Amino acid sequence: MDHRKKALLLGDYTHPDWHPLQGVDAEISRIFHDTMTVQCSENRNMLLQENITGFDVCICYMDDWKGKVSPQQTAGLLSYVSNGGGLVIIHNGISLQNRYELKQMIGAKFLHHPPYAPLEFTVTEESHPVTEGISGFTMEEEPYQFEFGSFAETKVLLEYQSEEGPKPAAWAHRYGVGRIVYLMPGHHVPSFAHETYRQLILQAGKWAARYV
Which GO molecular-function terms appear in the entry (predicted)? Predict the structure, then answer.
């Protein structure tokens, strides 16, 4: 019998705007192989309450900049997290912000990004389970920039260096009795080959799914 926890990975195979799930799905499945089974889907109805409740964590890689998530799917995800589910949002998954209720839950919104470039990442919260044991690293990435709302008490875990100074690159907080992590890197498959970033994803998933 498989005693691993269950993760749901949502993204886009057929009509991604910029970031296809193809290839990324295999990398994330390998990262969690020893701790969680990963079910990959582009069916947004997996967010409905009756479908998502069977999972310990939802990993969002949805490229949903046009806002295709319905009010019913939004309600399902909000209920899931507030009642104890885990949510890990990677890179473009923050496109969930098109639903204002989800933007409030995430705690920040994407504004824009300068060109893809080598970025230097620094851990700002060394004692958090998501970043514990992880040291600074460099990788090429899209430097997303965000605006934070005053409605969520979020904790910035990672920053990257920009010409304007340090910018947030990862954060975590609780929502109801659930747990949310956002990780900025993840533009394409090569992003997921970086060993330190793989460890960060693993620890984010384990914290969100209440392994720790």
Answer: hydrolase activity
